[in-house]
Design brief:
CATH class of the largest domain: Alpha Beta
CATH superfamily of the largest domain: Uracil-DNA glycosylase-like domain
Radius of gyration: 21 Å
Distance between the termini: 31 Å
CATH topology of the largest domain: Uracil-DNA Glycosylase, subunit E
Structural class: alpha/beta
Largest sheet: 5 strands, antiparallel
Order of helices and strands: EEEEHEEHEEEHEHEEH
Number of domains: 2
Length: 239
């Protein structure tokens, strides 16, 4: 299994206030504020040390040479939630159920129900057959709440889209699989973010690109897998 890479970034902010509470947790979470107070000229001066633990992307981009579509999420969930060593490994994420519905009319086609995991080899073989690339928009992140939520995910380093696309020359379709991913892709491509289920067309580094925005397959996004599959089918069935 690939390993997560962590490193700390420290930022110092100084200001003066009348009252301050001292709070130093014994087991700091990934983003921690340590407050140190001292007396100076009858005022309390506070130095906030923000220790930010960043994570590097643990997986290599999945780039079949025949890829015509690339799906981009945000960043993998914490490794404790993984059920396989591949993309969308959280059993509560419905991406591979959506694929099962779209291509086989069976949401459990890629699911190992008995062991509550995914059929990783079958997924990889199918993606290679269809020419579907998969990666994420973030290379390095900070998790503010130490969970899988995009709402608390700060991107430190974005994907080098030009370098990735150079490895899959036939790819002219990019699919975002969530809100954070859609925001980042639209910024990189310098194009207006489409509505969910829609697409925008642009040119990037001399290549015509069609950018689709799909609904998140996370269970946090309140929509049944069958309904999400209808949106994904509009792009997946084009290959």
């Amino acid at each position: 299994m690939e390993n997560f890479s962590y490193r700390n970034k420290i930022f110092f902010i100084n200001f003066t206030i009348d009252t301050v509470f001292l709070s130093i947790p014994t087991t700091p979470p990934p983003a921690t504020f340590l407050q140190i107070q001292y007396e100076s000229l009858n005022l309390r001066s506070v130095q906030i040390i923000k220790i930010m633990t960043t994570e590097r992307h643990p997986l290599k981009p999945f780039l079949p040479k025949n890829a015509k579509i690339m799906m981009l999420g945000s960043f993998p969930p914490p490794i404790k939630r993984w059920k396989m060593n591949f993309y969308y490994p959280n059993f509560q994420n419905d991406m591979w159920r959506v694929f099962g519905i779209v291509f086989f009319n069976d949401k459990n086609h890629f699911i190992d129900i008995e062991n509550k995991t995914f059929k990783q080899n079958e997924i990889i073989d199918f993606l290679n057959l269809k020419g579907i690339a998969i990666f994420d928009v973030a290379m390095e992140v900070v998790r503010e709440n130490n969970n899988a939520s995009d709402a608390h995910l700060n991107i430190v380093e974005e994907i080098n889209l030009q370098e990735i696309l150079s490895q899959i020359p036939e790819c002219k379709t990019i699919v975002s699989t969530g809100g954070k991913s859609a925001d980042t892709i639209s910024k990189i491509l310098d194009v207006k973010k489409p509505e969910i289920g829609g697409f925008a067309e642009t040119e990037f580094n001399g290549r015509k690109i069609r950018f689709y925005r799909m609904p998140s397959t996370s269970r946090a996004y309140p929509m049944k897998p069958e309904v999400k599959a209808q949106a994904y089918e509009t792009v997946l069935k084009t290959i």
